[in-house]
Amino acid sequence: MHLAVSLTIASVPGQASPTFGEIAAVVRNAEAAGVDMVVIPDSSVSGEPVVHPFEATTLLAALATVTSRIGLVAAASTVAHQPYNLARRFASLDIISHGRAGWNATMTQAPREAANFSRPEGFSSDDFHRRSQEYIDIVQGLWQGWDADALLFDKTGGRFHDPEKMHLLDHKGEFFSVRGPLNVARSPQDTPVLVLSGLQEPDMDIAARISDVILLDDEPAEGAKARYADLKRRVAACGCRPDAVKALTNISLTADDRLDAIAGRLAEQFQSNSCDGFNIQLPARLSALDDFVAVVVPELRRRGLFREAYRGTTLRSHLALAAGGDQ
User: Fold this and answer.
1) How many CA atoms does the CB half-sphere of 250 hold within 13 Å?
2) CB-based burial of residue 47 (10 Å sphere; 0-12 exposed, 13-18 middle, 19+ buried)?
3) Mean pLDDT lowest for which of 42-46, 105-109, 113-117, 235-239?
4) This prediction's pTM
5) Short-list 84, 74, 81, 141, CA closest to 104
6) How confident is the model at residue 327 (pLDDT cuts 50, 70, 90)?
7) Cα–Cα distance, 203 to 200 (Å, whole number)
8) Helix (H) or strand (E) holding 58
């Protein structure tokens, strides 16, 4: 199975925000346990009774310098950023992290967020979905604008790149106009990993076509099995291998959870063919990961359900996704 950890770094009234050192220690602990990736949520909504101590992509860049193997996924809003800038930022982060970066895009509109970005009325639900799909297509198109061997750096011949291996996006759509290409080299893992969340049933066709990983809410066994089988059918209908998209179930840990019961629950859900793994949503008490990696991860390994070590050096290689650089 694949394992991700979603960190709750936002503080609530009466609680101090975690420091970078505290967050880095948690991520290094997850890396020592062999967790595939850590997901850093974010919010640009003001007026909430929570404080986000760091912007997620900035935090990811800093975490890349104190880790070497774990995948680093940051949330970034399609409302708060222009697609070219976001594509450039994650392409840069992927180079900084040597191919370990991913973008978590949500298909759910955050209330009041658009009011901070010159859209006080926000978007209708239909407009938001169409805009988000166009936005993600642009970002992925920009990431694919340079072939792997396009940059020549040929001083003698005076050629920076091979023009035939550079592809203009030249996108003119309903919401955006983007010429391209990026002025950042191709990712070490070909493209950063795209993680989608906040999906509703109508979004599943989009997810099957464009995503690498989807995060799904937990649900009863029969419904989860049917949802997983349906997703894999949609992926195959797009002409891809069914395992080209990984489905991870969100699991929230609470202080009352018994660790041995958690291991059994994860094993049962995984072996029932309801997911490809889990996204462990940690409570604000970051030390909760200590118990998880000390008890649950070894038990999953004892059952032969979680690998002993990383497969390679890139996030795509950890997830057994296409490309991946060293896969």
Assistant:
1) 18
2) exposed
3) 42-46
4) 0.92
5) 74
6) very low
7) 5
8) helix 56-64
